[in-house]
Amino acid sequence: MNNLQNFKDYLLKQQIDFEESVSLKKKTWIKRGGVTNFWVLPNTENKLSSICIYCYKHQIHFEIVGHTSNLYFYNDYHPFIVITTVHLTNYIVHDTEIECEPGTPVAKLANQCIKQGFIGYEGFIGLPGTIASAVYNNSSCFGSYMSDIFIKATFLQEDSHIKDIFLNDLKYTQRSSALKRKELRGVILKVFLKRNQTEHPQQLIDKAIENKKIRNKTQEGPLNNLGSICGTISGYRKSTKNLIVRSLLKIYTIINHPSDYQKHKFTKKLILTIYRRKKLSKYISDYNMNCFIWKDDNADIHFNSYIALMKKVYHMEDDNLEIELKVNQNKVSK
Predict the structure, then answer these.
(1) Which member of 49, 139, 228, 285 is catalytic?
(2) Average per-residue pLDDT in the chain?
(3) pLDDT tier at 334, thresholds 50, 70, 90
(4) Architecture of domain 1-84
(5) 302 by DSSP, 3-state: which?
(6) In the annotation, is 333 catalytic?
(7) Which of 7, 89, 228, 244 is most solvent-facing, going by the fewest CB within 10 Å?
(8) Does the domain formed by 91-215 have CATH 3.40.50.880?
(9) How far apart are CA 207 and CA 246, in angstroms?
């Protein structure tokens, strides 16, 4: 109780906006999660850093989120504090770089950068999420890579010291980073990105338009899903069932000459039939097996079964998920 009141008093004293006893189902992208005691909404970098420093000093665990478009909060997880960057969305275009607050929407920034002829943003058009989360995840899409445009970030460490971190510090791998792997711990306060000008801005605009068309045509819409679930997939695992899947898929393709969408839909039906997992059908995208849809309340029950199926069917470079799970740690440790 003292922690609750002390933290509340601190927020009031610092004039930081917050809400109490908030259901995360009303805040998160896929409408999941338990109840947080405090949903905190800092609107300046100083307020963000001061909250985090307070929590570090008093050893209070907190979650920090942007759009939550890459986070799955389990319904039995009730974090004490969730800090959101939804009020930290400003950016400034300087002569040689772009300075972004952590909650800057990737899609909004990409759209403006493309219009101004800045190279490297055309693949991020329509991508949900914030700049800080894109740095954290090493986001990439349609040939655009965060690692290609990242310069540095202002970073608050767990010991409350603030420093600049650079590309080498993040140790980027395919859609992962030292931050995501917990090798580097702290909070991103600000991000600086490249602004390399092209001599052919219309080509960037045309490329971005084409990327958006492809996204709309080949990917599930943003509703009720977190995009790609599993890490890098590099083909089917060797098994009798997968041999049957591949053989039947090859025959289907030769006979029917299907579109990409038809082929993906048939692949899903084939896999679920052979593996006897037809109950998962409505929770898996017709566009991509690597996209789970939280269509109803029962989706949470089927999620682990879906992950187990994906690991049986596909060979992955590692067993890590591309999304981040927020779970009740006490329950996990039992």
Answers:
(1) 228
(2) 92
(3) very low
(4) 2-Layer Sandwich (3.30)
(5) helix
(6) no
(7) 244
(8) no
(9) 33
**pLDDT tens digit string along 88-123?**
999 999 999 999 999 999 999 999 999 999 999 999
Question: Rounded to two decimals, what is the model's pTM?
Answer: 0.91
Q: Which helix (H) or strand (E) holds 97?
A: strand 97-100
pLDDT digits (tens, 9 = 90+) for 278-329: 999 999 999 999 999 999 999 999 999 999 999 999 987 666 788 999 987 6
Separation of alpha carbons 63 and 67, rounded Å? 13
In this structure, what is the dihedral angle of CA atoms 105, 174, 137, 156, given to the nearest 10 degrees?
-120
* 158: CB partners within 8 A, 6+ apart: 56, 185, 186
The domain ranges of the chain are 1-84, 91-215, 230-326
Tokens, residue 69: 């478009």
Mean pLDDT of 145-155: 96
Distance between CA atoms of residues 280 and 273, nearest Å? 10
What is the rounded distance in angstroms from the CA atom of residue 217 to the CA atom of residue 287?
A: 9
Q: Please answer whether residues 52 and 62 qualify as being in contact, where contact means their C-beta atoms are separated by less than 8 angstroms.
A: yes
- Token digits for 74? 């389990």
Q: How far is CA 140 from CA 103, 152, 175, 233, 281, in A?
A: 18, 17, 7, 15, 28
Spell out the SS3 assignment of 178-222: CCCCCCCCEEEEEEEEECCECCCHHHHHHHHHHHHHHHHHHCCCC
Is 175 a known active-site residue? yes
Beta carbons of 313 and 237 less than 8 angstroms apart: yes
* 67: its two tokens: 């759009």
Q: Can you say whether the dihedral through the CA atoms of 54, 57, 58, 62 is positive or negative?
A: positive
Record the tokens describing residue 95, joined without a space.
């002569």
Catalytic residue, chosen from 50, 160, 175, 215, is: 175
